[in-house]
Amino acid sequence: MRHLAHEPARDDAAVPEVIPLGGPHSVNPQIVGDGAALLSRALRVGFPVARGFVVPVTAAGMDVAEVLGGALREAWAAIRGSVRIAVSATCPAGGGFGASPQFYDGSTWSGLLDGLYDMLAHHRLENPATTRLPWSIVVQDVPDVRCSALVMSGHPTGWGQGASVWSGSPDPDDPRDWLGWTRRRRLRRLAREAAALAGHPVDLEVVYDVRGSGRIVDFRRYNPVPQA
């Protein structure tokens, strides 16, 4: 398997307005931002990443009106269902999506736009330095999310018990543990494998649908404090 930390740079000439995750240009953080690049690299080496598309706003030379008028709608229409949208920005640490905002559902175009406007306003407020760097919008297929999990591989030389799993449900009144012991064990193994491939400790965000199928929606450098 190829090492995630050593993908060659690509020529960013003629960057398309919509790029499939894992496709040409999608592994270059200078085109798609760190979060989308890490997801694409993970997808290329066989990790269960949720399918989706990247709209490289900066690299394709688009303004927000052009994004809304064509590229984003094209990406959304290719999925046609509940989606996750997130801002993927380039940062010096190369930490994935990090503190960038995200939004779930978007099953209707008007609902997606409402979430997008709030997400972009939050991004400009919370991450002002990254707005001048390459950034993109990531759209992923996440139907009927039943449960989400944040898996932290843990720092290999620090205190702790190795990989840990934090879980949550869209229904705050549902006390059941939808993951169970078997899935938690698999998630810890997945985090260890991801850390080995990335060359550093990582955090993974995984969502499960009602059938129990899990897909990765974020792959980022390890942070000892879970991010909401």
TrEMBL record:
This is Uncharacterized protein. It comes from Sphaerisporangium rufum.
